[in-house]
Design goal:
Blueprint (H helix, E strand, L loop, with lengths): L2 E7 L10 E12 L4 E10 L2 E11 L3 H26 L1 H9 L4 E7 L2 H16 L13 H14 L2 E4 L7 H21 L2
Parallel strand pairs: 2-5, 5-6
Antiparallel strand pairs: 1-4, 2-3, 3-4
Helix pairs in contact: 1-2, 1-4
Length: about 190
């Protein structure tokens, strides 16, 4: 399996003396004709776009791309917070002691993702990651990583209707598509 990642940083971390709000918009998709999937995440810090991250993968599906978009968006926040702690030692203790110093909201158009994290993951774990059908839950590792980052960072999940004019969702969708298109055009050069 091949997985590519592109990151574009657009802003420096915010000042320490305020609550830092992060909004992550994610989207993923699968292009069956080419057997390629793409994912994209856009991160807004204090309502200002700060990071775009995207990637592509062969032999995948829409759900895996939705999961990767969310996971990579959350990882970007972790890296941003880690860098802030390294460059501003006083921030380390305030963030480590209280999540009140920052808030994270992740927006997705995938109801399956939200339902999986809020309801089904507990059932899957209780049944040793086996569905009612007897089949194993796909992408267990991704589900567990996302759950861990969600719990550690107290992430709030919100559903947005896809392809409905939401700027963050539209941008994330565009990043996912662009990742696949860039792969296809570079493969033909």
């Amino acid at each position: 399996m091949i997985d590519a990642l592109t990151v574009h940083s657009m802003a420096a971390p915010s000042e320490v003396n305020q609550v830092i709000s992060f909004d992550i918009y994610t989207d993923g998709g699968y292009f069956e004709k080419h057997d390629l999937g793409g994912w994209g995440s856009v991160i807004y810090q204090q309502d200002v776009e700060s990071i775009r991250v995207s990637g592509w993968q062969k032999k995948t599906c829409s759900l895996e791309m939705e999961l990767k978009a969310s996971l990579n968006g959350l990882k970007q926040i972790e890296e941003l917070l880690s860098k802030a702690m390294q460059t501003r030692p006083s921030l380390e203790s305030s963030i480590a002691c209280s999540t009140a110093q920052y808030s994270i909201t992740l927006y997705t158009d995938s109801r399956i993702l939200i339902e999986g994290l809020s309801q089904k993951i507990h059932l899957w774990r209780a049944k040793n990651w086996i569905h009612k059908s007897g089949n194993p839950v796909k992408f267990r590792c991704l589900w567990e990583q996302i759950e861990q980052l969600t719990l550690v960072n107290h992430v709030h999940w919100k559903w947005v209707k896809g392809h409905n004019g939401n700027r963050g969702n539209t941008l994330a969708d565009g990043l996912a598509r662009a990742a696949v298109i860039n792969k296809l055009t570079s493969a033909h050069l």
